[in-house]
């Protein structure tokens, strides 16, 4: 084999170029499929947020409507019904709140910035189970305070 190149081979060799690799694929701009996925995630997030707010507002509205339907005929029954309603509302707020009793239930109702007054919370914790509290019992004031608690904590 001869290592001598003919002039024709030398001209062809001179015309050869090095292999040029394509530019590396960048991560930006994103492909249309990624834009669609991002849009879908955003839409689903907004729908989930709106759905949860609607459920919460509906539950609060139903609780307030049920509160208005409670008749203050007998004090013990009135207090028991309000306490039961508050337990159902509290269950939505925190998991174990509906099983609290006595001082723990009273403390739960008083906790936080929008808690009930200590008199109302104690009355709701002990009133349904004991003798009538006192002659100064005002069912409409308790109903108003309960409605405020439901609006702010429900």
Structural descriptors:
154 residues, mainly alpha, DUF4381, membrane, transmembrane
Provide a short characterization of the protein structure.
It comes from Agrobacterium larrymoorei. With 154 residues, the chain is mainly alpha-helical.
Number of domains: 1
- State the order of secondary-structure elements, H for helix, E for strand: HHHHHH
Terminal-residue CA separation: 94 Å
Number of strands: 0
Percent helix range: 55-70%
Overall body shape: rod-shaped
Approximately how much beta-strand content do the residues carry? Answer: under 5%
User: What oligomeric state is this?
Assistant: single chain
Structural class: mainly alpha
Average pLDDT: 87
> Nearest-angstrom radius of gyration?
36 Å
Explain this structure to me?
This protein has 154 residues and is mainly alpha-helical. The protein has one domain (32-153). Helices cover 64% and strands 0% of the residues. It contains 6 helices and no strands. The longest helix is centred in the N-terminal third of the chain and has 38 residues, at 32-69. The protein is rod-shaped and about 125 Å long. The mean pLDDT is 87.
């Amino acid at each position: 084999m001869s290592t001598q190149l003919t002039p024709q081979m030398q001209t062809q060799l001179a015309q050869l170029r090095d292999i040029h690799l394509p530019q590396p694929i960048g991560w930006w701009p994103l492909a249309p499929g990624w834009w669609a996925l991002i849009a879908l995630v955003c839409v689903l997030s907004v729908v989930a947020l709106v759905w949860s707010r609607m459920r919460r507002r509906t539950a609060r509205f139903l609780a307030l409507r049920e509160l208005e339907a409670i008749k203050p005929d007998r004090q013990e029954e009135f207090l028991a019904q309000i306490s039961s309603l508050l337990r159902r509302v509290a269950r939505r707020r925190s998991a174990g709140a509906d099983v609290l009793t006595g001082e723990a239930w009273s403390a739960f109702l008083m906790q936080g910035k929008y808690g009930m007054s200590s008199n109302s919370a104690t009355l709701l914790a002990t009133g349904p189970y004991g003798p009538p509290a006192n002659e100064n019992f005002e069912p409409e004031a308790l109903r108003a305070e309960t409605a405020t608690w439901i609006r702010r904590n429900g």
